[in-house]
């Protein structure tokens, strides 16, 4: 008897960690992050993938790329140069600076195939920061089946997977939340201002007081906050 597939389509947001992953190691050691666009395993048994490295400063990205090149878990790391007028990606990266890199590595250290082989489909880039990956995927399964599949991936790859959100997928175009455009520091400062009444009326906090909370100067606080606000406002039509 043919097993009937669930008619339900789900969109999952998950956070995960798995061992022997160069992306998790280099982002754990730096203030930069990565956007990953999926891994291809070639006929010669090598995994290849393109990433956008991002950070608040070029120096942070350069440090990440250097660590990636020195990692025993990578075989090759090359920067990708795009010609004038050619967009590197339709996705806006967090931070103030970006570089595109192409990386080759051992597919045994990639968790992508464990998801793909179980029918999960990417719904946007993988966000990698501070030693963790955040995925958004589509699954043509019910919620019980999804949880069993994720548990199987955890056992297979010795991974830790946390479900952040599950929703019904209606086929609408994926959107990039405005806060995803912010670097970790920008998000921290924006959330700190919002949570402490900076945007309330009357205003519940001053920029000087908020800066003192975080142990930084008012000028530095406002610099991060204004950059965060500018990125969020670009998403308002």
Summarize the structure in short.
Keywords: Transcription, Transcription regulation. 32% of the residues lie in helices and 27% in strands.
Structural class assignment: alpha+beta
Radius of gyration over all CA atoms, rounded: 20 Å
Mean pLDDT level: 84
What count of domains describes the coordinates?
2
Major sheet description: 9 strands, antiparallel
Number of helices: 7
Element pattern in H and E = EHEEHEEHEEEHEHHH
Separation, N- and C-terminal Cα atoms: 52 Å
Query: Beta-strand level of the residues, as a percent range?
Result: 25-35%
Q: How many E strands?
A: 9
- Low-confidence parts lasting 5 or more residues at pLDDT below 50? 1-5, 83-88
**Overall form:** globular
Helix content: 25-40%
Protein name: Helix-turn-helix domain-containing protein
InterPro entries: HTH_bacterioopsin, WH-like_DNA-bd_sf
Domain HTH bat-type: 182-233
Keywords: Transcription, Transcription regulation
Sum up the structure in keywords.
237 residues, alpha+beta, Arc Repressor Mutant, subunit A, 2 domains, 9-stranded antiparallel β-sheet, Helix-turn-helix domain-containing protein, WH-like_DNA-bd_sf, transcription regulation, transcription
Structural overview:
Helix 1 packs across helix 2 (58-70), helix 5 crosses helix 7 (218-233) and helix 6 (207-214) crosses helix 7. It contains 7 helices and 9 strands. Strand 2 (33-41) and strand 3 (47-55) form a beta hairpin. It is an alpha+beta fold and 237 residues long. It is globular and about 60 Å long. Strands 1, 2, 3, 4, 5, 6, 7, 8 and 9 form a 9-stranded antiparallel beta sheet that branches. The protein has 2 domains: 10-168, no CATH class; 178-233, Arc Repressor Mutant, subunit A, CATH 1.10.10. Keywords: Transcription, Transcription regulation. Residues 182-233 form the HTH bat-type domain. Pfam families: HTH_10. InterPro entries: HTH_bacterioopsin, WH-like_DNA-bd_sf.
